[in-house]
Amino acid sequence: MPLSWNEIRNRALAFSKEWADESSEDAEAKSFWGDFFNVFGISRRRVASFEEPVNIKAAEQMGKLHDLLKASGYEGHALEVYFVRLLYR
């Protein structure tokens, strides 16, 4: 049975309060996404059935590269343009 808008709103509010102070993205990624999809009544397992492991690994590697470059001082518009070029050339 689909969730009502009121139920989604209540779940979203609870989710935002629970995750407001989280700072460890890598350590909590699976929990975060599981809780996020739960806002809409969707299980993490259902979403995972649509993911392709190769794409996930590539996205994780790009995210790590992005974080390393940003930590070294390469950031802002220049960093984002660089990543667009990496992805689409």
What's this entry about, in short?
It is built from 5 helices and no strands.
Q: Which terms would index this structure?
A:
89 residues
* Rg, Å, rounded: 17 Å
Largest sheet: none
Helical residues, percent: over 70%
Strand content: under 5%
Dominant shape: extended
| Termini gap | 44 Å
Query: What would the average pLDDT be, to the nearest integer?
Result: 82
Strand and helix order = HHHHH
Q: What structural category do the secondary elements indicate?
A: mainly alpha
**What is the strand tally?**
0
Number of helices: 5
> Could you list the spans in which at least 5 consecutive residues all have pLDDT below 50?
none
Number of domains: 2
Describe this structure in words.
The chain has five helices and no strands. The chain is mainly α. It folds into two domains: 5-48, no CATH class; 53-88.
Task: Note the topology.
Elements: H1 5-19, H2 25-39, H3 44-48, H4 53-71, H5 76-88
